[in-house]
Specification:
Layout: H1 2-25, E1 38-41, H2 42-51, H3 53-60, E2 64-76, E3 82-87, E4 93-98, E5 114-125, E6 127-135
Parallel strand pairs: 1-2, 4-6
Antiparallel strand pairs: 2-3, 2-5, 3-4, 5-6
Helix pairs in contact: 2-3
Length: 138
């Protein structure tokens, strides 16, 4: 009886490890191939969160957004991650963190330049955060 229970426990552990490894190796699809749920300006997006954060979370959180705006600042972190802040007409703006799973044709941006980015809305933390962004060429 104890041998059967031990064998069953080992079998379940092996199955769990296999499923875990499968999901660990799954690649997140590139944002470049995703369809945008909504298109709006950086000022509109920030204003929605500033006016009513709960309603904006319900409407935008987890959605893929195409956001147009003017670059306020751009930088590249030590690990190579590109971050761009779009001006929203306030002290804060829309922070776009570029997708590490995508080869980007552009990784440098000039302040004042108008761009359109596509990314997943991750909520408000001073700036409205867009994750896994890519530049949309128009």
């Amino acid at each position: 009886m104890k041998k059967r229970l031990l064998l069953l426990a080992l079998l379940l552990a092996a199955m769990g490890a296999a499923v875990g490894l499968y999901f660990y190796r799954q690649k997140v699809p590139s944002m470049a191939t995703q369809k945008a749920d909504l298109t709006l300006s950086a000022a509109e997006l920030f204003a929605a969160f500033e006016t009513d954060e709960a309603a904006a979370n319900a409407r935008y959180l987890g959605k893929i957004l195409m956001v147009k705006g003017q670059v306020r600042e751009a930088n590249t972190l030590a690990d190579g991650t590109v971050k761009v802040v779009l001006n929203a007409g306030r002290d804060f703006g829309v922070l776009c963190e570029f997708d590490p799973n995508t080869q980007h044709p552009r990784t440098t941006f000039q302040p004042g330049e108008n761009i359109t980015v596509k990314g997943e809305c991750a909520g408000l933390n001073f700036d409205v955060l867009l994750a896994r962004c890519v530049v949309v060429e128009e």
